[in-house]
Amino acid sequence: MSVDLETASISDVASQLRRKELSPLEVTRLYLERAKRLNPLLNAYITLTEEQALADAARAEQEIQRGLYRGPLHARDTFFDQRQSGHQWCENDRGIEDS
Predict the structure, then answer these.
(1) Residue 79 located in a structural domain
(2) Beta carbons within 8 Å of 90's beta carbon, 6+ residues apart
(3) What local confidence, expressed as pLDDT, does residue 59 receive?
(4) Element (H, E) at 13
(5) Domain that holds residue 72
(6) Tens digits of residue pLDDT in 31-78
(7) Half-sphere CA count of 88, side-chain side, radius 13 A
(8) Mean pLDDT of 2-7
(9) Is residue 30 part of a domain?
(10) Which of 76, 74, 96 is nearest to 84 (CA)?
């Protein structure tokens, strides 16, 4: 069963990742292209960290190939890494400042 990644649920994508029928790199590339295509209309991203996303997807793919599937949010660390690295998230966001 192949899923339409434009409309698939995270559960559907996760099932295919777990069974190695779908590549994390394939999913990431599709969503990066989608973000670049739609962002001029939606203005949803200030910073699109494409290189980091692809590196994280490659790492996740290697882990899955070795049998280290961690669940539907396997690459979730990307969100926290980017937030802590000082990427601007909204107009008034200047990154995380030391308390």
Answers:
(1) yes
(2) 46
(3) 92
(4) helix 10-18
(5) 10-84
(6) 899 999 999 999 888 888 889 889 989 999 999 999 999 888 775 555
(7) 8
(8) 81
(9) yes
(10) 96
CA dihedral 60, 62, 64, 65 (to 10 degrees): 160
Which pair of tokens denotes residue 90?
């909204």
- How much is the pLDDT for 38? 93
Q: Which residue has the tokens 């996740």?
A: 60
Distance of CA 2 to CAs 10, 12, 56, 59, Å? 14, 9, 23, 23
Asked if residue 83 lies in contact with residue 70, where contact means CB atoms within 8 angstroms, the answer is no
CA 2 remoteness from chain centre: 19
pTM greater than 0.90: no
Whole-number Cα distances in Å, 48 to 3, 36, 43, 45: 25, 8, 11, 6
Asked whether the predicted pLDDT for residue 96 surpasses 50, the reply is no
| Separation of alpha carbons 7 and 30, rounded Å | 12
For residue 89, tell me if it sits in a domain: no
The total of structural domains in the chain comes to 1
